[in-house]
Structures are given as C-alpha cells and as structure tokens.
Amino acid sequence: xxxxxxxxxxxxxxxxxxxxxxxxxxxxxxxxxxxxxxxxxxxxxxxxxxxxxxxxxxxxxxxxxxxxxxxxxxxxxxxxxxxxxxxxxxxxxxxxxxxxxxxxxxxxxxxxxxxxxxxxxxxxxxxxxxxxxxxxxxxxxxxxxxxxxxxxxxxxxxxxxxxxxxxxxxxxxxxxxxxxxxxxxxxxxxxxxxxxxxxxxxxxxxxxxxxxxxxxxxxxxxxxxxxxxxxxxxxxxxxxxxxxxxxxxxxxxxxxxxxxxxxxxxxxxxxxxxxxxxxxxxxxxxxxxxxxxxxxxxxxxxxxxxxxxxxxxxxxxxxxxxxxxxxxxxxxxxxxxxxxxxxxxxxxxxxxxxxxxxxxxxxxxxxxxxxxxxxxxxxxxxxxxxxxxxxxxxxxxxxxxxxxxxxxxxxxxxxxxxxxxxxxxxxxxxxxxxxxxxxxxxxxxxxxxxxxxxxxxxxxxxxxxxxxxxxxxxxxxxxxxxxxxxxxxxxxxxxxxxxxxxxxxxxxxxxxxxxxxxxxxxxxxxxxxxxxxxxxxxxxxxxxxxxxxxxxxxxxxxxxxx
Length: 562
What we know:
By secondary structure, this protein is of the alpha+beta class. It has three domains: 5-234, Phosphatase 2c, domain 1 (4-Layer Sandwich), CATH 3.60.40.10; 238-340, 2-Layer Sandwich (Phosphorylase Kinase, domain 1); 345-530, Transferase(Phosphotransferase), domain 1 (Orthogonal Bundle). Helices cover 34% and strands 20% of the residues. The strands form six sheets. It has a six-stranded antiparallel β-sheet, with helices on one face. Helix 10 (359-378) packs antiparallel against helix 16 and helix 15 (490-499) runs antiparallel to helix 16 (511-519).
C-alpha cells in the first residue's frame, strides 16, 4: 500500500534576541499510527513579555506531537487535537506566577490520508504553495502593527480557548510553509515563492528565508519549517483487496472440530451473513464465541472490510456493558473473530418471557444500555443497530451490547479508501428517521433507538407503529405511551416523546439526561398539558365525540317522543 513521501526543511534562530523562544517539530510515525493518526507538524512562538516564552512554546509543541498520538484511534483528528490543545491551554494558564503569563502562539497541521487538518491560535502562519501560487491558510489573531502589534488570541492567556480549524484536501506536490511572525512580517509572499522554487533542498530554502527576514531588519526570533508532500497514501483497489484476502474464509464448522487452538462445542446461531459458534480455548479452558463470515460473501471486499472492523471496534471498547472482543492470541489460519461467551438470553427473549414488566426493571435495563452506548460515544463511535436482539442479559442481570457490524467510527471515516463505504441502517423499527432521509447519524440517533426499546418495554408496542420506515418518516405522529399503559406517568411519557422526536435536534443532548428523566420527574413535564386531546390520543378524542353525539341524538329522540 502506498505511503506518504515527504521532504522536510527546517531552520530556527534567535535572531537579534538573546534567547530563541520559538519551537517547532514534526512527527512521522510508523504503521499503524500513520494510517490511523497521520503526520503532525507544528510551529509555536512564545509570547514576548511573558514569564518564559520558551517553556510555553515548547510545551505547546511537545504536548501536541506526543499527546495527539495517545488519543483513541477511533476519534476524529479534530476532536483529538482540540482535546490536547484545551488541556495544554489549561496547564499553561495555571503555571505562571499569575494566570495568563505563560503564553504562546500555535499553528499545526495533521495530514491524515488525503486531508490536511489545520489548527491555529495566534499570529504564526501556515502557507500552502500549489501550482506556483502561495496561499495563507491561517488568519492572524492580532491587531495594531509594528512595535504596537498585540495578540488578540494565544495559548495560555485565558481559560477559554477559541481554536481556528479547517480541513483542506491534500494533493501530491503540496508544499506547506510554517513561519513565526519574525519571518513573515519581513519577507514578502513573492520572495517566499521565489526562494522555494529556486531550491530543491528545503533546509537550504528555510535557512534563506530566515536570513532574508534578518537582513530586512526583523528584531524577533526567526523560524521556518517546510513540509513537501511528494506522494500521498492512495491505495489501489487491488492493494486493498490483497490485504483483505490475507486470511481465507473458514469452512462451516461442526462440534468437535479444532481451529487454531479453539475446539468447537456447538453452533449458537447462523444467518445469511455470519455463523456464531460456542468454542473452548484449549490453552486456557475458557469458553469463547467464534464469529465467522458467511461463505456467500467470500468475494465481497466491502463485506470483508466491515467484518474486520468488528474486531477493531470490540477490542478497543472497555465497558462492563459491551461485549468483549479479544485480539488474536495465536496466529490465525482463517478469518474469524473471538469474543467473550455471555451466558444468558437476548433482551428479545427476556421480553417474551416477562410480558409484565415494572417501571424499575425497565429503568434498570435502559440505564445499562445507555452506559454501553456511552462507551461507544466516548470513542466517537455510533452503534447504529441497537435493538432487543443485539442486547444480552446474563444470569446476574448484567446487560451487554453485542454485534458491531454497523458501527460507524469517526477516525476511520477520515481515511480514504477505493472501496465504497456503505452505511448499514440497522433494523427498520429501531433506526432513527434521519437514516431514512439520507443524513448521517449522530449520538442522538442511538438515543432514538434506545428510546424505541424503552417504549416497547413499557407498552409492548412501537411508538410509530409497525409500518414506520415504509413511507415518509417526517409525517409520522408519536402515539402516547399512556394509550397502551395508563399507569405510565405523564412526565415519563414526555421523556419518551422527547427522545423519540423526529427532529434529532429536539432530542436530549446526552443519554444521561434521558435516563434521568425516566427516573425522576422533569419539572418542565409536570406543567398542565395544553396539547389538544385529538393530538395526544386520537382514539379517545373520537370516542368522546361519538359518545357526545350519541347523547345528543338520544336527547333529541326523547324530546320528539314527548
């Protein structure tokens, strides 16, 4: 598979100052980090007049280049870098003798796949040279000029930090120039282009730009870093297929067969897409589950890619309410994944066996499912297929979410692929309406699915009926849960209605808020219900109309007889 090919040039010096308070750096990691996280480059300029500008700029550069690679692979670049910068900003703000006295500018670029992600605070700059045209990609956060120029934004000067972010497409041949203000305030754009085009040696070009700024009278520290992307990671379809085909599909397995140290006990279930077996790890004696791909999809690279992602997802989530997926303990001869064996039953089976369910049982189940979903959301993943059949309950009543075949991973979505990425909608009755409308899901989409299950647990019905998803989902109307179960308090019904809103923006911001409102009355839901009866309960409305009409007719008949 093709990798990045880079050329780098760097030069920095104190110039006319006693100390060089600029810092800069670049990290080019090995696989798999370079695929999952990309390449990071940064320049920072310690603010003149602060206590220790060098400490501030070095802290910004080191924290970004080290801590960014410690964030979860599943996170998007934007979320990862912003988390690191916000933490660094808090540290800088609290370290000086007075708040805000340890400060620095920062301009950073993370190149992941075929996209450059830019982050910027202050008046250092990032330029891009493409096709002979130099473009400034960052906007200076400063006002005034010359000796009277002041920063309006910098790392460490305030607990609140506004970070400029933009993503731009990368092209082979793109050249990015990082400069501190001591350089770009004294070297014109034309001079930068002329110098870069004159030198193949980028280190020599960086040195010359610094010297040009010095010769022009720059009184400041001088730093220039140049990164040239000569080649981008553009895997061909053939390369991807070869990687996916490294492991062959296993045969259909039977009790007693052995695969890589696992002895098959029995088949648990089978579908058109997968087979699931109970097995024993002969080395440890532990019961496990082997999930194998269906032979029907042996020549389907998209299916194989999705199947492989299930192991990637499951091995990264650590929660008592999410099924554990184990990384291979021995070399595999076939394509399969190994997960923990959960003794118990699915939520669907439990619902069939417990038709009468009290509120406390339902709240407990919903709370555990919400905790499992939260584990996904913290890693910027969406489950996207929450339904009673994908929830297990063990003999101790512990709920675990299973089946990660539809999980959406923000970090992997940023990696370009020649394979078409498909979004599995999950199961019709539990999928959020935005999926049917062609929009991407959010954490509120998983919330909708959870609320459908909660509604079903409380009423034995579906909130939008059996035909939901077959027509225009924007036209469906919520049916009050109290229609099917009058014992449900009004405030609980309102909580369900909010979480089941067709418009995702009208749902809860967090799952914890939804769970809280199922357990304790929300004061906003205790106000007098002004919603017309025809909207709250159409059947009751028309029943009442019929009774009134019958009474009126009876009265007229009585008068006629008299």
